[in-house]
Fold:
Amino acid sequence: MTNEPSKNVQIENLIVGHFDGTLNEEQEKELAKTLGTSPAAKRLFLSYMRMEGRLHSLGRDGFLREPETELKANTEAGGISSPATDDTKIALGEESSSRAFFFKSQFIAASTSVAVCAAVILVVSAWILSPASVSASSVLMKAQQAAAELVDRTYRLTISHSDAKKGDQLRELTITLRGGGRFVVRPVDDSYVMGSDGDDYWLALKSGPVWVTRDFRSLAPELQRKIPNRRLLELAASPEEPLLLKIDSLLSLIEHRFDVQLIDSGDETLHRVRATLRPGKRNGPSWVDLWSDVDSGVVHRIEMEYSKHRHATFELGENPAFSDEWYHHSEHAPDRDVERITAW
Amino acid sequence: MDETPHIQQYLQLRSEFMGYLYAMTRDVELAEEVYQNAAVVVIEKAETETIRDFRAWAKEVVRRQALHAVRARATAERHGRAMSPELLEAVSVVFVQDTSEDSVVRDEASALKQCLDGLPSDKRELIALRYERSSSFDEISKHTGSTPAAVQRALSRIRKLLHGCVQRRMQLAEGES
Structure:
């Protein structure tokens, strides 16, 4: 009888070994045979192959290293951390040598095959610079790039909700965003503050502990059990809405679930994209309108409609710069107990 | 038919193609060179040929360029033993026959970014050292003060962690949709 888990581990080891270049001839033949006979092995190989390609692309573009290379000690377990071993406790070099290594590698990568690169760049540049070629997708892509920048941007979010019994309800929040997944959101009544420092998501009420997790989605059910006044946390408790708290996630959502078209913005300095939920897609707003700066791609305004009775608007406000620490819960809920919610 | 310019479609498939090219060459500089040579073919041929399925067509261009490059490199000393022809053939067949949906590929990319963000700093640094210029285990070990074997084992484990994380996120997303 075949031991399946063991066989799968063996196949995975062969695949990883292949990408490491550590397989001997016999192992390569074994991998080739397995790829020819096992659909599961093919799928596994393909997903590893795509991951390998992405890692190389991200590395080439300089996106693998943390934006601010702070080699801070990991005092809390979570996420995909595993117990440290001798192998993973590899001493890392000084910041300056690490940076030098990075820039050197970028330079080498940039200087390879210059002539061929130039041909490609010329064609792509011609496409990008042609005014007639601006498309909703390219506007969206530029907005995504702007949202990923390490720049603090503060938006005012207004959610309006018409209720037959309670009449019109309006809630306002401010959201400060920075690339790398950092954000802080706070309603105008200061009833809670929630954010992410790029590693951990956290949430604090006016009193009590700060809840911290690596997985935003795990907050909702956990908080539902712990907090009596759930309405305060409506935004965090919905399985769909947490995505919308972050502009870059919203843009990603639009890309995956919506049909997009460029429409007249009425302002030559702004592009306007109309995104309409694709047929068969249930989650999310029915449409989203997005205004972004023609030059920088920065999103200035977003309007969304969930139903005839429910709308939300993001509007770019003033943009003061904040320190890195500002995205950490200790800046907003100091001297509180920290309760970590394990995600997975 | 997709109206997006061919070169733009080609650039959007970069990660997928680079994954295949790295699997074929295990040399990121050569993989990059083949990718760019194939880009020139795409620019030239796309103007004269009617292309119904760009992804499939571009895959074939990339596959041919890769096989040509691997054969040309076969005698180069720095690469030691050439990869077994059986494996080269098997990898190419898997690549060309792959029918993974675009949405799966995109979701995987998004999941990988999230998983990388959750990676502790030391592991992320190691990944950066490896993939920014395809540094050898030996080069990384000099930089980190470890041994090449330890670097290789650590990187293998991190990749398995990342891959497992991506798969879990994909399953979670599937369950929610």
Remarks:
- Chain B has a mean pLDDT of 83.
- The first helix of chain B runs from residue 6 to 12.
- Chain B has two domains: 6-97, 102-176.
